[in-house]
Amino acid sequence: MTRTKPKVAFFDFACCEGCQLQVANMGELLLDVLGLIEVVEFREVMSEKGPEKIDVAVVEGSITDKHAIERIKKIRDRAKVLIAYGSCATIGGVNGMKNNFKLDDIRKEVYGDRFNYFDTVETKAVHQVVKVDYFVNGCPVYIPEFVKVLKAALQGIPYEVPDHAVCVECKLNENVCMYDRGVACMGPVTRAGCNSWCINNGNICYGCRGMVSNPNENGAMDIIKKYNIPMDMVINKMNMYNKCREIDKREQKKR
Amino acid sequence: MLYNLSQYVVLKKEDFNGFISDLVKEQKVVAPVAKGCGQFSFEEVKSGSEISIDYIPTILPPKKYFMPRDENIATYDLSNGEDMEPVVEYEKMLLFGVHTCDLAGIQCLNMVFSERPRDLNYLIRKNQITIIGYECNFYCDRFASCRLVHNHSPNGGYDLFFTDVGDRFMIHVNTNTGEELVAKSNLLRKAGEKDFEDLQRVREAKNREFAKNEIPIEHEKIPELFDRAYNSKVWEDLDKRCVACGNCTNVCPSCYCFNMIDEPNLDLKTGRRYRQWDSCQNESFAKVAGGESFRKERGARQRHRYYRKFKYPIAKFSRFFCTGCGRCSRTCMACINLKETLNSLIKEQGMENPEAGKV
Description:
Chain A is an alpha/beta fold. Chain A has helices at residues 18-24, 28-34, 66-78, 87-91, 103-111, 143-155, 166-172, 197-200, 217-226, 231-242, 245-254, and strands spanning 7-12, 38-42, 54-60, 79-85, 134-136. Chain A has a 5-stranded parallel beta sheet with strand order 2-1-3-4-5. The N and C termini of chain A lie far apart (49 Å). Chain B has 2 domains: 5-68 and 89-209, no CATH class; 219-258 and 280-348, no CATH class. Chain B is built from 13 helices and 12 strands. Chain B has an 8-stranded mixed beta sheet with strand order 3-2-6-7-8-9-1-10, sandwiched between helices. Chain B has a 4-stranded antiparallel beta sheet with strand order 5-4-12-11, with no helix packed on it. The two termini of chain B are 14 Å apart. The mean pLDDT of chain B is 95. Chain A binds chain B through residues 32-33, 35-36, 147-148, 151, 154-155, 160, 162-165, 167-168, 171-172, 174-177, 179-181, 187-189, 212-216, 218-220, 222-223, 226, and chain B through 35-37, 39, 41, 58-60, 64, 69, 240-247, 250-251, 263-264, 266-268, 277, 279, 281-284, 298, 331, 333-335. Chain A: It holds the Pfam family Oxidored_q6.
């Protein structure tokens, strides 16, 4: 008995396409993944376009103009399951920094006196526009987690993004704490799931996986004070990936 | 204290590296190694020169060898029904340089996992691990509270136990495995009267160093303190400060909670069941179906952690599960300090006794 493989298509919006590159660079594991799915559309690696109905849409990038809003809605209609992957798609990512400024100022900066020809909207994560079934956070995505989510999606079971701090995984990896090295790290407020990838390799956590759902902001302030870290530096670090979090907060208030 | 001299052997310090090299030839040897920034971890070593013998408690306790952070429990195959095969993963190894606080931590885990139904994975692995303890003659730092919980001196739980008595180590031989190690080595000699006197001298000096409890309360009064302090304001203070990073429980030598996870292979038919360290400080730990959480507030989670060290295990195992190692305080992002918490509780309940534990 042969089973038809699920049709999977990859799409991108405002992003660097680095997460697609991560998937393409998966190595030997990619062959196993391809044994499981049929890739019907993937701009980074093939020219073909997919059929009207697809089983799984894997979406990279954030939504930043009207055209993108229409396109993501169409993709949502075509797909049974939608996976947002990478920081841009899951939390808005670095594109969210646009929301620090007035939209017209942004357009003038980029397009000069022709700015009127180019529309732009507040940067949004994919779930802030259409329903998202699975999230693979990270900039770029952590391939072991991507594979885990893909398996969950194909089995039709939920995947919960860990809701505890990166510190948990970092401590289990027995790294010397970045704060003890005199460097400010976003680990204490950032969602785990990456196996503290950056810190294992001597870097800090930039908060690319989004914040834990219930951060203790007062407690975080104490830490910032204890290590004598300038407040505006922390806010900038926070907003580098997490500016679109404000849209979620706004929506929560409306409810 | 009565010493039985026949149970002691002596290793000259100049022979230390040779002793370790002999052990390394026989099996995997794990010992404290410097990680920088005044921190240490247990790592595999190939020679004595890699070992930092004067170390303060490692980032993670040796529990990582007894209950690995990710441990395979079973494999499954759904091709024909629901086939499951249990898996036990273990490795023969020798742990060198374990402080008395961490020996106590291993004893706690032994009690927990020996309860029925016994945890065979743990017990099989534990039997493959040889332990050489190492005595602290001085306090490691201001965070330790080993005197309070009577873990500053050896209480068993090792095969051999080293005490630095100047130019040599006095070694207590505690088990058959320990005797076998001694028999194999040609660097050890039997202890004599002079060695015994030096050991006594070191222990007397140590008694002066660890003269009384670090916290002004008698050991046996602690359960009463916790009986009275459940609704204390101290927990509200911790609620404001804790960021729930989970560091305190992950580094604790006696925390053993784990989560069970089924992970399919890419064929989606076969897969593995594994367990992974979990923490009562994590947001999702006490969450149940429907999104309810039994311990939503961080203060309640912190309180739970303290009660799991000082109250609940007394009823169940008749011992404190705080080993006094000080790791939770050393590692806390928010400077939550176990000694300060106990001090605040004692003050609030009017149970201060400045001379507590004095010998």
